[in-house]
Fold this sequence. Notes:
- This protein has 182 residues and is mostly helical.
- Helix content is 70%, strand content 0%.
- It has helices spanning 3-18, 34-45, 52-60, 63-66, 71-88, 97-107, 113-132, 139-155, 162-181.
- 34% of the residues are buried.
Amino acid sequence: MSLNFSLFITALDFAAEKHKLQKRKGKASIPYINHPIKVAKILSEVGLVTEVNVLMAALLHDTIEDTEATTEELDFLFGKEVTSIVLEVTDDKTMEWQSRKDYQIVKAPNLSREAKLVKLADKICNITDIVNEPPDWSAERKRKYLVWAKKVVDALGGNVNQHLEERFAEQYQMGIEVLKEG
Ligand code: ZN
C-alpha cells in the first residue's frame, strides 16, 4: 500500500474519531463525518481532483474549527502542507459569527489554489444539503446562506476548477428556485 493511501486512511479515521459525537444541522441528524467525506467525494468525482493532500485536507477541513484537534496534531500526523490547507479554510472562532462570515469573503481571493478547491467543494456540499437535507431554518435564512456562499465563491476569483465552479452555479440556481417555490 502506498504511503499516500495509508495516510489518507489515517486522515479519514482521525476525522471520524474527532467528529464522532457531532451531528450535522438538520432534521435527519446525520453524523457530522458524512460532511467531510462528501466534500472529498465532490473534489474527486466532480472536480476530478487527484492530489492526495487536497483530498486529505477535505477530510480534515473542519477538525480544527469544530473539534478539539490541534494544529500540532495535524502537523505531526499529516505534515505541513495538509495542515496549512486546513488552516486556510478554518474560521477564527474568537471572532463573532457575522465577522467570521464576512471575513471568509475578504480572505477568499488570497487563498492558495488547494484551499480554494476545498472551499469550493465545501460550499457545494453545504448549499446542496440546505436544499436536500434542509436544516430547521426559515426560507429567508436559507436564501441568505445561499447568497453568502455565492459571495464567498465569487470572491475566490474563478479559474480554480471549472467543473466545481459549474456545479456550484447549478446548485445555487436550483436552490434559489426551490426556495422561491417553498
Ligand atoms: Zn465544511
